[in-house]
Q: What sequence folds into this?
């Protein structure tokens, strides 16, 4: 799946998923983000030593989690409601092809808990559980 | 305190990370949400997942949740009735 804007409401420069490689709605999603030198946040984070901010790795997982929903999310009010057990094991750098893997832990009353991993070339960079609320 | 009720309280404390709280501090009849323990919708999801994981009991929808989360006693009864 490559037509990401057809599903997610996010847009440049905050659309942080490039491709969806595997997708089983309600269960599991594998997506991809290529970190290019032109990413706006790299310019100042940090000067001469660019790396992807950890909070954006979490945002990538949250956006990948959007594809757990079977229907497109345009117009849907969805909020990140919680972050648990976040670990940042290594930085994501320009040129990295990031693999975003998320799995649903379960859902209840408009809330969903997902667990995700950002990895690059088989090495885990970030793991976290996210709580997402849909109004 | 029945064994099941004690396990329910321990699950609530562990799952919601109510550090410093012990099972005997949770009133059997106090509401879990709003007054009482003061839990919110995020806690509700954690409890739904915890109940399924620990006791193998699913809370299918909000109506079932409203009934089950009325109090620890109600939740214990719900689990006892629906455990396989």
A:
């Amino acid at each position: 799946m490559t037509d990401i804007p057809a599903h997610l409401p996010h847009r440049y420069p905050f659309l942080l998923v490039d491709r969806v490689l595997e997708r089983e709605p309600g269960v599991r999603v594998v997506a991809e983000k290529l970190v290019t030198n032109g990413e706006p946040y790299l310019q100042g984070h940090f000067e001469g030593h660019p790396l992807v901010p950890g909070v954006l790795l979490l945002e990538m997982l949250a956006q990948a989690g959007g594809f757990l929903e079977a229907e497109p999310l345009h117009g849907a009010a969805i909020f990140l409601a919680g972050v648990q057990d976040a670990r940042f094991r290594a930085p994501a750098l320009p040129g990295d092809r990031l693999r975003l893997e998320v799995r649903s832990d379960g859902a209840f009353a408009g809330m969903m808990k997902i667990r995700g991993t950002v990895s690059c070339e088989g090495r885990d960079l970030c793991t976290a559980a996210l709580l997402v609320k849909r109004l | 305190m029945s064994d099941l009720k004690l396990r329910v309280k321990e699950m609530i404390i562990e799952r919601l990370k109510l550090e410093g709280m012990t099972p005997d501090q949770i009133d059997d009849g106090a509401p879990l949400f709003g007054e009482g323990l003061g839990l919110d919708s995020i806690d509700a999801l954690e409890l739904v997942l915890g109940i399924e994981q620990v006791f193998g009991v699913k809370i299918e929808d909000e109506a079932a949740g409203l009934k089950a989360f009325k109090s620890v006693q109600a939740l214990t009864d719900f689990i006892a009735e629906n455990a396989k």
